[in-house]
Amino acid sequence: MTKEVNVALIGTRFMGRAHSNAWSNVRKNFKLDIKPVLKVACGRKIDDHINEFAKQYGWEAVSDQWEDVVSDPNIDIVDISASNKSHFPIAMAAVKAGKHVICEKPLAMTAEEAKAMYLAAKEAGVVHMTAFNYRQVPALIYAKQLIDEGKIGDIRHFDAVYYQDWLINPDFPFVWRNDIVEAGSGAHGDMNAHLVDLARYLVGEVADVSGIQNIFVKERPVRDGSGTREVTADDATSFLCHFNNGALGSFISTRFATGRKNYLKFELFGSKGSLKFELERLNELQYFSTEDDQGDQGYRTILMTESVHPFISAWWPPGHIIGWEHTFIHEVKLFLDAIALKSDLSPSFYDGWRTQSVMDAVVKSSEKKTWVKVEA
Amino acid sequence: MTKEVNVALIGTRFMGRAHSNAWSNVRKNFKLDIKPVLKVACGRKIDDHINEFAKQYGWEAVSDQWEDVVSDPNIDIVDISASNKSHFPIAMAAVKAGKHVICEKPLAMTAEEAKAMYLAAKEAGVVHMTAFNYRQVPALIYAKQLIDEGKIGDIRHFDAVYYQDWLINPDFPFVWRNDIVEAGSGAHGDMNAHLVDLARYLVGEVADVSGIQNIFVKERPVRDGSGTREVTADDATSFLCHFNNGALGSFISTRFATGRKNYLKFELFGSKGSLKFELERLNELQYFSTEDDQGDQGYRTILMTESVHPFISAWWPPGHIIGWEHTFIHEVKLFLDAIALKSDLSPSFYDGWRTQSVMDAVVKSSEKKTWVKVEA
Amino acid sequence: MTKEVNVALIGTRFMGRAHSNAWSNVRKNFKLDIKPVLKVACGRKIDDHINEFAKQYGWEAVSDQWEDVVSDPNIDIVDISASNKSHFPIAMAAVKAGKHVICEKPLAMTAEEAKAMYLAAKEAGVVHMTAFNYRQVPALIYAKQLIDEGKIGDIRHFDAVYYQDWLINPDFPFVWRNDIVEAGSGAHGDMNAHLVDLARYLVGEVADVSGIQNIFVKERPVRDGSGTREVTADDATSFLCHFNNGALGSFISTRFATGRKNYLKFELFGSKGSLKFELERLNELQYFSTEDDQGDQGYRTILMTESVHPFISAWWPPGHIIGWEHTFIHEVKLFLDAIALKSDLSPSFYDGWRTQSVMDAVVKSSEKKTWVKVEA
Amino acid sequence: MTKEVNVALIGTRFMGRAHSNAWSNVRKNFKLDIKPVLKVACGRKIDDHINEFAKQYGWEAVSDQWEDVVSDPNIDIVDISASNKSHFPIAMAAVKAGKHVICEKPLAMTAEEAKAMYLAAKEAGVVHMTAFNYRQVPALIYAKQLIDEGKIGDIRHFDAVYYQDWLINPDFPFVWRNDIVEAGSGAHGDMNAHLVDLARYLVGEVADVSGIQNIFVKERPVRDGSGTREVTADDATSFLCHFNNGALGSFISTRFATGRKNYLKFELFGSKGSLKFELERLNELQYFSTEDDQGDQGYRTILMTESVHPFISAWWPPGHIIGWEHTFIHEVKLFLDAIALKSDLSPSFYDGWRTQSVMDAVVKSSEKKTWVKVEA
Fold first, then answer.
1. Residue B281 is nearest to which of A21, A260, A281, comparing CB atoms?
2. Number of alpha helices (DSSP H) and beta strands (DSSP E) in chain D
3. Chain B: closest CA distance from residue D312 (Å)
4. CB pair distance less than 8 Å for A301 and C301
5. Residue C223: is it exposed, middle or buried by C-beta count within 10 angstroms (0-12/13-18/19+)?
6. Which residue, A220, A172, A208, A166, is CA-closest to A191?
7. Cα separations in angstroms, B185 against B88, B102, B179
8. Which residue of D has its CA nearest to B294?
9. Do B238 and C256 touch (CB under 8 A)?
């Protein structure tokens, strides 16, 4: 018989919507022995927004008291889609209360926090996940398979960018993401976190880094027209790295890449093949193989909609593409599987912590203007 | 207060899934004054499949008696996702019973049937829709806007292809789509129907046609291993046409386009600009404008994820793409809007009929090996 | 020892330039036992243009008397780059005088003329070539190799377009190419001739055709401002065909494809693989193989600059692309090889004739509005 | 009357061929008041290779004594296409002898050498050019124009890669380019030199850098089978930089980018627009403008073959692409123009020196593992 698990969502904005959509749709497409019940959505206050939000996605109740929610004995799963700053206290409380926890990235404000979260979750024996949803893009799981099968050979380079452009206008008003205290970081935490997680997933651990952080527009108007406010979070952060296995890495994240909306891209080069991926065409993977006949070699555009591709048999026939939101459905599916099987999963809090260690090293490197080793 | 409308779905296979997903998700993303209730899913028999299907998508009941379902006074909307042959009898019965009807394409087996369905629906005063879902791709609605704004100028050419490859292997077994009696037609009805509808939407009415139909593999093995069966439905149908406004058209639909999975593509050329669209990258529209500075002219790849783009404000921020299934959610949204507003919509049964008239002319042309005028 | 052959060029405009460039450069990159001497360039009159032209490319003399030139005993090769109308008389005279002849396409104004030219050249035992230069694109020779090796399997579809846009503006003045008497045809002879030759090269002979020809802008201003003149040559010609081997073909040539400059493109689908080519990216060939691992299948973009690719070892290292003009150098190289080896070559006048037969059938089909068999 | 200038070429390998092709073709396509005479080609020894080479390209004589050649009073121009090591002595001698000098990149083995060359050339009053041929790609000159016209706005990012893959096989034998003493550097000098020159051209001067250099395969077999030899030149060099104007830069050059043959690519982001360029598609420029209508914004693929595009009126009609070798013809054209006009040109030895300063700073940064300021 299907077991029900009660979910509490903390955070009802962008990520809250994406997660709600996933919770409410996962069983339409995947056969699961476990059924998530959308029990309560928790925000900062009870208002029209949260009531409307709950009705839209089918949350049975609303709350503005996350402490109560995470300690409620009826709740099995806590989904943390709230602000970066709140991840640590909520996750620690949830884990302590024995809840399974899925938490948005970046997992914490510092590697230290992230490590504590990981250790607490491990100690508590709960299922824990860092919501690096891009690991659930079929093309990227398939990329990992190609690497694991040896089709790419020894990896030499991982060159990644994450380009957005929503801050290029200096008159764009100050938002919480421009505030280092509120957001923890700017482009770095929001965007490089994804790149670093993918790098660890596909290539391996990062040894050391040399980075720069930059704020192009130092002051921005505040929305109420009362003047300007100093931007303290990075507009752009780039870094170079060595991986433990000898590969070289290059990472660029910026909100000043005019014309690029949500353009995460990487090229990965190995001794036997290479891969290229672009998030705005997430149904495609570019693959070059040196094992093709000599004259026939070239980058293949694999349309990632065949039933042999990861997760795809749950969706539509070949050539019928999926969207960005599907990555969250896959994520929730994995999370529920782990609960059903009482198994570990990846990306866990461990991965959130390891990524945060790389991120912290980059910040330190940028401040010191030198190479910095990633702390183990 | 939100009004509830009860939906009956006839057909629980591929299209039944896509429609169910739409009915169950439309209100998560769109604010509607009307709420669809998934009342009953109707198939050919009551079995594990239909029970599982109903549970997955939340249909309250199941049935194997479509006649009862469409005459049930509790039902407001009949959604016909069943086989092509059944569209006519079900739609006629539903319309007669005063139901609003959304029907998959091709609307009917012949233009004559389609016309009767249109006239009956009009007479009954119900909302009627032919489910040409590609009209609900944001890029294509935007294409239509550019044309209507005069940015493309006088249209000269509409060159469209619809490529699939699932029949290239001669050992692929005989399926109902290979049977002209069951399916009405092959690639023509399944794929050209979409192209013709888009052509009418973007360019205008078709005047006359010259076409060819072809069966490349004449016999296919039957699945039970008992021998082979003659293929009677077309593997490929191509045709040329004149539009009433003087534009020329070219259409190719085939299931023998090796490497193409669901590749609907067109190029549309006007006196001031041009457009290109590919379904497997449905979040993009290519646009060329002669009004750009002379040296700067080129095809623009517009990523159709800005809030100013059709339907997009309901979804995600820029750069976060939608999938194929979203077109059905948009479709259902329009259908419900029309019911709420008691208004007409397009593509209606009228559009289903007009498309069928073009389709029939192509078949006749292929048989007679001459040009055939499209019947008004 | 290297043998010298004396070349006479008839026609000093666009094609004359491309051919002159080829004659003067062929031995820089290819080792040949034969050396072309640029003896005389012949135009309609002796003026500054032709004198300047001869100096630029190194023609030793100029002439305005093609009859004298082609009968000059010193001349070994006649290169006909003059207007379509003049191909027949010049080629017949040249062949009669025992010259080797390379002639621009379309070979003649009619299939009848072309056949006579072919028979005369054969009778005379001279080397004869129709200058379908796109057969000398490395990517297309490679495509032919893949087909001949069986990698594509049985060909099902050849869908080709040739798009240009230089006539879209109705105010663009009348030119000789708009005059059916002068040019023989419009887009059809200029552009479809290339497509048909490639189709014959890659797929095989055409059995029958159904076509349409269209003039979008009926009158154009004459350049001297004295009024307008009626356009009599086709702006666009499209046709469908059956090939003898059962494949289907689709061809579109138009000068009203806004935004496309010299965009010859085709997709060719076979039972085992497929090919795609675009002339504006002539250094690339797209290749899809069903023999790749199931999950890894996709169109490969082969960059046609490896030493194993046709003609490329004569040029630059991998990744260093060649241009459009190189096709003429390859063409001249083949022509000189055939003279040196006293061998046949392809595309010969035979190919020019066979293409012209297809072209004529299309014109007839367009007039009669019915399918027309290609004459053998 | 046309003035003749006598050219001496030093170096007859890859670059010698590209330059010879340029000298011999420049007047076919460009009207010049000055005529280069291919006087002497100079190599390391007189052998079949150089004799054949001279015959191919039309060099009147050959030599193995560069000292004699550069001091020959008959010579006006010295073209240095020889090994990196030889640039300094040859250029210094040539300049001293009052010759105009065009020298391949990297200009010298160190910035110090390069500076001396620049000062000597300036002092001598001769025309001097560093052969950064990619500055003569029409798309890149056009990119510069767009920037200068203000269409891109304030530049924020310049992210460039130069990918090749000819060293990925560890069994590929040791070549002179693997030897730091012979080559001066590996990927860095060969490939980053191009990127840095383009960066200076398009963005401006570089302030400081942080780089890494890497050798993936430490030993390679020697060709004669006698064992292996240590690789001392870098396989890959990457660096980050600040530009003086506040923009950030990222540079990656590697010979281990499997599948990439000669893939120089950059993306340049400004406050009003952005540009993207790929060398293997050098006839195209990608341009995004924030000044397009909001819903219509997208990267335009500009096909750089219009007569309004730089250098193109000398070539072919729209849509007829040029190749890699054309950049050298453009280069030589500019050089001859500067001689005719007795004017300065860019990229001169000054540019060669400034680039070398950046290059040296990267090497130092890699050694010291810290940021290094570029010396003025």
1. A281
2. 11, 17
3. 12
4. yes
5. exposed
6. A166
7. 15, 21, 8
8. D308
9. no
Grade residue D182 by pLDDT with cuts at 50, 70 and 90: confident
CA distance A163 to A254: 5
Q: Average of pLDDT values for B53-71?
A: 97
C306 touches chain A (CB under 8 A): yes
Contact (CB, 8 A) for B162 and B195: yes
C-alpha distances (whole Å) from B314 to each of B101, B202, B327, B329, D72 are 25, 24, 13, 11, 77
Cβ–Cβ gap C282/D321 under 8 Å: yes
- Shortest distance between the Cα of A25 and any Cα of chain B, in A, equals 8
Main-chain dihedrals φ then ψ at residue D322, nearest 5 degrees? -100, 170
D287 with B299: Cβ contact below 8 A:
no
Tokens of B232: 């009677």
**How far does A287 lie from chain D, in Å, by closest CA?**
9
Strand pairing partners for A217?
Answer: none
Nearest CA in chain D to B304: D295
Picking from C169, C274, C371, the nearest residue to B258 by CB comes out as: C274
A210: closest chain D residue by CA:
D210
If DSSP codes are grouped into helix, strand and coil, which group holds residue B355?
helix
Residue A347: asked if its preceding bond is cis (omega within 30°), the reply is yes
Q: Where are the alpha helices (DSSP H) in chain C?
A: 14-29, 48-57, 66-71, 87-96, 111-124, 138-148, 180-183, 187, 193-202, 326-341, 349-368
ipTM: 0.96
pLDDT at B1 over 80: no
* Residue from D321, D265, D261, D315 nearest C282 by CA: D321
Tell me if the pTM is above 0.90: yes
Cβ-based contacts of D301 with chain B (< 8 Å): 298-299, 301
Cross-chain residue pair B164–A261, CB shorter than 8 Å = no
- Which residue does chain C place closest to B300, by CA atoms? C259
Question: Which residue(s) pair with B100 in the sheet?
Answer: B77
- Per-residue pLDDT of A183-234, as tens digits, reads 899 999 999 999 999 999 999 999 999 999 999 999 999 999 899 999 999 9
The residues, any chain, with a CB within 8 Å of residue C337's CB and separated by 6 or more, are C32, C343, C345
Q: Please choose, from the candidates C266, C249, C263, C265, the residue with its C-alpha nearest in 3D space to the C-alpha of residue C211.
A: C249
For the record, the structure tokens of A171 come out as: 């008159």
D308 to chain B, any CB pair closer than 8 A? The answer is yes
pLDDT tens, position by position, C94-138: 999 999 999 999 999 999 999 999 999 999 999 999 999 999 999
Q: Does C288 touch chain B (CB under 8 A)?
A: yes
Beta-bridge partners for D41: D9, D62
Query: Do the chains contact at A24 and B21, CB–CB below 8 Å?
Result: no
Reply yes or no on whether the pLDDT at A1 is more than 70.
no
Whether the CB of D321 is below 8 Å from some CB of chain B: the reply is no
Q: Which long-range contacts (CB under 8 A, 24 or more apart) does C18-21 make?
A: C18/C81, C18/C133, C18/C325, C18/C328, C18/D316, C19/C79, C19/C81, C19/C102, C19/C131, C19/C328, C19/C332, C20/C53, C20/C56, C20/C57, C20/C59, C20/D28, C21/C57, C21/C325, C21/C328, C21/C329, C21/D28
Q: Would you call B220 helix, strand, or coil by DSSP?
A: strand
Q: What domains are defined for chain C?
A: 3-132 (3.40.50.720), 135-346+353-368 (3.30.360.10)
**Helix (H/G/I), strand (E/B), else coil: C239:** strand
Q: Return the structure tokens found at A357.
A: 């260690």
C-alpha A373: how far from chain center: 23
Which member of C142, C299, C306 has the closest CB to residue A300?
A: C299
Determine contact, residues B369/C370, Cβ cutoff 8 Å: yes
Rounded to an integer, the average pLDDT of D277-298 is 97
Between chains, do D28 and C56 touch, taking CB under 8 Å as contact? yes
D164 neighbourhood in chain C, CB within 8 Å: 319
Give the mutation candidate from A1, A277, A320, A327 for the B interface (greatest B CB count, under 10 A).
A320
